Backbone:
């Protein structure tokens, strides 16, 4: 989807991180979802790298 | 008494925790308190604050800890914990009923037609999530910093390949389809498009365009490093191409620090034969090369706005380095400012929350005054080289060194308040500040400044002195804060509110020269 | 990775298409594969006598007395420790058991056939509440009751079933999850449907009206009777998944009162264990966490299939037993969608707008999101024979999933399937 396509569509946002940014969007009536983000595998390095092994380069 | 509480595998975002810590500190009997994730940075902070206890040794970045130093006769750890929980719960209630999925993937299941991912998670994880988002066909607004340069390049290349926006890392401002993202002002839609590598620079330009009666089609952020050699201006180029192809955009504005030479060349190459007028503010850069490329150079952020509006209205884009007020008025303001000062009041104290606004101030004032700063023009003017306090300072309080363990000063005025308290004294002649409104900013930054100024002026009045204070408000009448009220509360505190940062800086310069400091 | 998605698709097809059917009853020694007189089956992963917790020991003692292999508890203990008695998980013999889950050769069992895949699963009849073997009680009344179940209950139910014909358990459970059961800790509706289904057939058996009445009374007094049908139904549904190569679906979760164990499809029979947890739940008056035995029972095979705690939203009354609010129940189910691959095509949950139950636990999702499966469970007293002391919500230890995931990636790596 090219940048110019984005300009023609309704902006819908997925927010990962600071909740205040999500609040600002909903305040303006912008469709948004707040992800309750945590580091993958809870930040456990070993598990995170194992997960990485299962991601193919597609 | 010093105590800690540890919650394993509990994750909260940094700003939430910092603001909660601040509230907890207000409890009577609490000397110091820090609630944070167990990152090295936070644990160092705890050590620095003399609150480290052995049980914190085993804490990981995925654990939450609360470390507190308190007078146990006045308050208990249970009280602190209760305050912590209460604040979290009120946030939870505020969001009750809205399901918050744990991953981007599950968010997409809930909103399959999402267009953009806005990412402000810690830098070490941000690149992976940004890549996830791009691979899923989402445009990305990446607010996070501390992302490796190699990752930025990789992400931007991927974005270009897929025809997506990759705004950032370290991108604070964008306005897409009229929607302010992260730190941005509410401005009317219009025919001017902007691509910016600097947050408050973008904010200032968009606000002045709105002030002049025109509007913005799209405001694309690129992040602060986009125009470095290594990144090659990938997003600036992507943005320019999009705006050239956008039927709603008639005039294009570019704002950034001066690019690496090879990147500058690339940009000019892109603009060759462009059918839309382009206004370029490479802050502090060479006007000649811009002109040669067929674009319109600028003297300041405000000047960029004025020229874009002029060109849109098919008027001549003349240089503006003066004032909106007539010369007699300006003279009067300078005289009145001087009247407040005693001869031993010699120094400028400029405290900025917006980096580019601070940069604009230093570049202008530093040409003819010796200004010390944490973003100095030359290394010998680094503010830690200042002996005692005998010199002018202009600080960017949003820089890393001032935001360790604290929210950015645009979100929380407390840092600047502390600088006011510490630095405004009998030797201060002139105070210069920015007041940044808009989404993402504190709900009432003007009042915080006004309070501190009133306090400082009262302090000085005891010895028959007063302060000259100059400010500008980067805000619009559509912003969530009240622009009119902000102006009023500052003026009532004796602050001279100028229509732009450039004019505020120029007025400050006039006052300094008139006072001979 | 495509080949993992394909494998998981196959696994989910098996789960979605399963047709667990109650086809008959038999005596364990005759119908349970590998069963013999000196073998005692138990819930959970493999465990030795010396590591068994109170309730399981008690149940073993009771089992040995019931089988006539020992006359007194002391003899039973000596025998159990002697090495002359074999212990094995129910799961290794196509069986499942609630709480201690002890199955001995003379015990009657339900026979469940998964008509789609042709595999079988077995479970004893649920004893009811009070002093019962599955909580480790082994006194004379326990043995007497077991005897009654063998000599009176079983023959009547077996004959009634022959008269009635096979019962589609999936159909039964699909109804009961819309009637307030989550079919692990709340089984009242399922039990009622079973009684209703079987009533006329029971009446038609050759047993005396007095015995038939006693059977009805017993069934009516035992809200959890149908648990011993939903458990083998779930097992029959999940077992075939254990043969799907490369699939990351978790097909077994079980505890023996000391360890919690899981099994993952790609890794076949391998158990991944970690210490079972003490449940932080709602305790009956007079009891607390200090009295609790660690988590025990095969009953979380229901959660493994997507009912039980995963479908908590559909049984709001459960919160009276496990604590929390009906909104909490909904939140738990909502969370479970994050670690499962599909929604059940059969078990639809009205409070979730009739979304299907979260089905197909993917170990990759558990690791990535750090969300653990949620299990509704009863809590046993740590001393043998005292019984249930509470109920609550419990999670498996993360370690089981971490170890299994590491082995899973290792397996794929060894096969050269990863870049």
Residues:
């Amino acid at each position: 989807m090219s940048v110019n396509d984005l300009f023609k569509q309704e902006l819908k946002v997925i927010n990962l991180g600071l909740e205040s940014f999500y609040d600002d969007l909903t305040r303006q009536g912008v469709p948004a979802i707040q992800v309750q983000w945590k580091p993958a595998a809870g930040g456990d390095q070993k598990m995170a790298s194992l997960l990485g092994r299962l991601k193919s380069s597609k | 008494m010093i105590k800690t509480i540890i919650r394993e595998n509990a994750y909260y975002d940094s700003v939430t925790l910092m603001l909660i810590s601040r509230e907890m500190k207000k409890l009577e009997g609490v000397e110091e308190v820090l609630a944070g994730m167990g990152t090295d940075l936070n644990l160092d902070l705890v050590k620095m604050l003399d609150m480290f206890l052995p049980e914190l040794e085993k804490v990981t970045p995925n654990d939450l800890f609360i470390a507190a130093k308190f007078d146990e006769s006045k308050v208990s750890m249970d009280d602190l914990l209760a305050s912590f929980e209460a604040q979290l719960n009120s946030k939870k209630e505020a969001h009750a009923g809205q399901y918050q999925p744990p991953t981007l993937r599950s968010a997409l299941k809930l909103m399959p037609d999402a267009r953009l991912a806005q990412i402000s998670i810690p830098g070490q994880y941000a690149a992976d999530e940004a890549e996830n988002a791009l691979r899923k066909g989402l445009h990305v607004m990446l607010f996070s910093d501390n992302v490796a340069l190699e990752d930025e390049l990789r992400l931007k290349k991927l974005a270009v390949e897929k025809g997506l926006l990759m705004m950032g890392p370290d991108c604070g401002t964008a306005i897409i389809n009229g929607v302010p993202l992260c730190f941005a002002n509410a401005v009317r839609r219009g025919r001017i498009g902007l691509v910016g590598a600097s947050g408050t620079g973008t904010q200032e330009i968009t606000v002045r365009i709105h002030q002049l009666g025109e509007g913005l089609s799209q405001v694309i952020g690129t992040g602060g490093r986009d125009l470095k050699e290594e990144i090659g201006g990938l997003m600036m180029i992507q943005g320019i191409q999009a705006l050239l192809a956008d039927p709603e955009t008639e005039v294009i504005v570019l704002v950034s620090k001066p690019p690496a030479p090879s990147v500058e060349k690339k940009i000019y190459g892109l603009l060759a034969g462009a059918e839309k007028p382009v206004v370029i503010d490479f802050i502090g850069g060479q006007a000649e090369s811009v002109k040669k490329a067929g674009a319109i150079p600028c003297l300041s952020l405000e000047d960029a706005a004025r020229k874009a509006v002029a060109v849109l209205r098919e008027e001549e884009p003349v240089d503006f380095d003066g004032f909106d007020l007539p010369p007699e008025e300006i003279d009067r303001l300078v005289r009145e400012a001087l009247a407040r000062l005693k001869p031993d009041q010699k120094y400028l104290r400029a405290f900025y929350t917006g980096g580019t606004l601070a940069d604009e101030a230093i570049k202008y004032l530093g040409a003819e005054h010796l200004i010390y700063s944490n973003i100095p023009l030359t290394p010998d003017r680094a503010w830690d080289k200042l002996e005692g306090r005998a010199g002018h300072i202009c600080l960017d309080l949003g820089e890393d060194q001032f935001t360790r363990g604290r929210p950015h000063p645009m979100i929380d005025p407390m840092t600047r308040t502390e600088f006011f308290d510490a630095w405004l004294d009998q030797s201060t002649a002139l105070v210069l500040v920015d007041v940044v409104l808009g989404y993402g900013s504190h709900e009432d930054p003007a009042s915080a400044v006004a309070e501190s100024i009133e306090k400082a002026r009262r302090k000085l009045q005891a010895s028959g002195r007063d302060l000259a204070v100059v400010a500008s408000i980067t805000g619009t009448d559509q912003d969530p804060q009240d622009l009119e009220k902000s102006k009023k509360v500052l003026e009532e505190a004796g602050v001279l509110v100028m229509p732009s940062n450039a004019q505020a800086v120029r007025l400050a310069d006039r006052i300094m020269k008139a006072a001979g400091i | 990775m495509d080949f993992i998605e394909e494998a998981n698709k196959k696994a989910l097809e098996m789960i979605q298409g399963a047709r667990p059917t109650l086809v008959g009853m038999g005596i364990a020694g005759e119908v349970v594969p590998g069963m013999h007189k000196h073998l005692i089956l138990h819930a959970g992963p493999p465990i030795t006598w010396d590591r068994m917790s109170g309730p399981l020991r008690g149940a073993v003692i009771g089992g040995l007395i019931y089988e006539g292999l020992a006359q007194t508890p002391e003899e039973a203990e000596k025998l159990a420790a002697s090495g002359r008695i074999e212990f094995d998980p129910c799961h290794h013999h196509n069986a499942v058991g609630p709480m201690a889950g002890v199955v001995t050769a003379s015990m009657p069992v339900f026979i469940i056939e998964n008509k789609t895949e042709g595999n079988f699963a077995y479970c004893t009849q649920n004893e009811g509440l009070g002093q019962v073997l599955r909580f480790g009680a082994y006194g004379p009344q326990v043995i007497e009751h077991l005897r009654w179940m063998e000599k009176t209950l079983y023959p009547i139910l077996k004959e009634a079933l022959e008269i009635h014909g096979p019962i589609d358990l999936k159909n039964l459970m699909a109804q009961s999850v819309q009637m307030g059961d989550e079919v692990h800790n709340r089984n009242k509706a399922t039990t009622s449907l079973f009684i209703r289904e079987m009533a006329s057939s029971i009446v038609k058996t050759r047993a005396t009206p007095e015995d038939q009445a006693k059977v009805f009374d017993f069934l009516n007094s035992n809200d959890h009777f149908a648990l011993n049908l939903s458990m083998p139904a779930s097992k029959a549904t999940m077992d075939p998944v254990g043969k799907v190569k490369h699939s990351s679906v978790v097909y077994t979760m079980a505890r023996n009162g000391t360890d919690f164990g899981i099994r993952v499809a790609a890794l076949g029979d391998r158990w991944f264990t970690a210490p079972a947890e003490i449940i932080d739940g709602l305790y009956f008056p007079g009891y607390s966490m200090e009295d609790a035995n660690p988590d025990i029972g095969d009953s979380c095979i229901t959660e493994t299939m997507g009912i039980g705690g995963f479908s908590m939203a559909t049984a709001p009354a459960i919160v009276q037993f496990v604590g929390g609010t009906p909104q909490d129940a909904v939140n738990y189910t909502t969370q479970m969608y994050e670690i499962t691959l599909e929604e059940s095509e059969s078990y639809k949950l009205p409070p979730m707008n009739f979304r299907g139950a979260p089905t197909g636990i993917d170990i990759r999702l558990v690791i990535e999101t750090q969300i653990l499966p949620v299990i509704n469970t009863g809590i046993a007293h740590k001393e043998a024979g005292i019984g249930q002391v509470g109920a609550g919500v419990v999670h498996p230890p993360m370690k089981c999933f971490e170890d299994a995931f590491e082995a899973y990636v290792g397996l794929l790596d060894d096969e050269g399937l990863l870049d």
